[in-house]
Amino acid sequence: MITEVYPNIFKNEIPLPKNPLKAINSYIIISENRNLIIDTGFNTEECLTELTKGLEELNIDLKKTDLLITHMHTDHSGLAPALKKSGVQSIYFSQIDGDLFNQTSKRDSFYHTLNQIFGFKTDNSLRFGKEFGTRLVEPLEFSPLIEGNEIILGDYCFEVVDIPGHTPGHIGLYERKHRLFFCGDHVLDAITPNISFWGFEQDILSTYLNSLNKLYQYEIDYLFTAHRKIIRDHQKRIIELVNHHEERLKEILLILQDGKKTASEMAAAMHWDVSHKKWEDFPHSQKWFASGEALSHLEHLVHIGLVDRIDKNEKLFYGIPE
């Protein structure tokens, strides 16, 4: 469904069947000489059909169109190879997320390691259901963007902004004169972006909170999000997200008063705003995302010295320091 949300800026709402996110907002910015698509949907026939309908409705010539991927998650990047084959010119990523998108074997190895940490069966590592689409096999050629790069489209001058946290290389686009910001999954209305674990060497939750503080400083009238509604008061929503994570950390510390927990045991004990009442009833994908979020918060508490990480019998436990 195509909607003009600002002059020459269109939102193409692409349904994500059987996914709690419901839909992704792919944006299309048009100008006389060049167009830009921001994010794509999963690599599924359903997403490709809806994306194509929107492009055809706007009579988009892919030979004078570029694609920007805000981050490597497959609901944002899945159709990049298909669009490239259809004629899209440059595909833009951050270097970090572009490499993650292409490094299939390395990514699979990381997922298998996470399964061991979570206590899930290794052969379930990538079983998220057909609704998540198929993944890239051949590497995708992309043009890396860094903070401060500019993309000029008609009257608009978009600046690339680094906003890591939801993924390590998440980027956004800021239009200073019109006070517009395309933020991908960095800030969402009504739902909270998943902040997962990306390795023991980094405190990804702290990275995310720092990026929220960075975005708070920007003058923004329209925050174009990748899911749900466009946000008009980004500062109010950022305060709500910061408070949410503070409550999450307090919840985890309270749960740990009862004793050491693994990441998945912590996730099972935490409150989640989902329809399933029992952890056992969660679909595998939701268990995965919940465990990843629990682990990122546990690791943040380890980094600030409030929780210990204990390696016992090849299993990781977290507990209050004695």
From TrEMBL:
For this UniProt entry, the molecular function terms from Gene Ontology, in alphabetical order, are: hydrolase activity
- The Metallo-beta-lactamase domain is annotated at 23-227
Keyword field:
Hydrolase
- InterPro entries, per this entry? Metallo-B-lactamas (IPR001279), RibonucZ/Hydroxyglut_hydro (IPR036866), Sec-metab_biosynth-thioest (IPR050662), WH-like_DNA-bd_sf (IPR036388)
User: In the UniProt record, does the keyword DNA repair occur?
Assistant: no
Could you confirm whether the keyword Hydrolase appears in this record?
Answer: yes
**Pfam families recorded for this chain?**
Lactamase_B
Q: What is this protein called?
A: MBL fold metallo-hydrolase
Q: Which organism is it from?
A: Desulfosporosinus fructosivorans
